[in-house]
Write a structure and sequence with these properties.
Elements: H1 5-27, H2 34-45, H3 53-78, H4 86-111, H5 117-138, H6 142-161, H7 172-180
């Protein structure tokens, strides 16, 4: 099999792009941008009449544990050999992003306060802030971005849409629509 020079250049360019994207991904991964938004979500969930601190703190603790694992992954990435293939590092970070997104998804379910429009609107705003900050570092590599977005936002949007508010104007979906438009 003969590889044409253009094809070889294309392969080299794609490898360089992946290497640089993964470098950006790991460089932006240790800023702990989730912390204020997760703390705000947890605080808002405690407004409910049957709020239990240990239950509300579960997603927050999961996110801290994932951050510790992420720090170890970044340390291992920083110790890698310069010529290492970036694909396994991309896969590892994508898995970590998915797990982090699922922790946010668990948070969306736990932190949602049925029947409390202020708490739901607050949760919407906090999730929008989380989306703006958490997604920035994952934007360099689309699979990491998508796994985090799917894990965090799908349960959140589903929970908001299933809120049985008697008045549609007082549902979290309307709060989300007001913020987004």
């Amino acid at each position: 099999m003969i590889i044409e020079p253009r094809a070889n250049q294309s392969i080299l360019r794609d490898q360089a792009l992946l290497r640089d994207r993964i470098a950006i991904l790991y460089a932006l991964s240790d800023h702990y941008l989730f912390l204020p938004f997760a703390a705000l979500c947890m605080a808002a969930s405690l407004v409910g009449p049957h709020a239990v601190l240990s239950y509300a703190a579960t997603p927050f603790i999961l996110l801290i544990a994932i951050t510790v694992v992420g720090g170890r992954l970044k340390a291992a990435y920083d110790r890698r050999k310069p010529g290492d293939d970036p694909a396994p590092w991309a896969s590892r970070y994508t898995i970590l992003s998915g797990v982090s997104g699922l922790a946010w998804g668990v948070g969306a379910i736990i932190w949602f306060v049925p029947g409390s429009f202020p708490a739901q609107a607050y949760l919407v705003l906090a999730f929008l802030g989380m989306s703006a900050t958490e997604f920035v570092c994952r934007a360099a590599y689309r699979p990491a971005y998508l796994t985090h977005a799917a894990g965090s936002l799908l349960p959140f949007v589903t929970r908001c849409r299933r809120a049985n508010a008697p008045d549609p104007r007082s549902s979290p979906t309307s709060a989300m629509n007001c913020v987004l438009h």
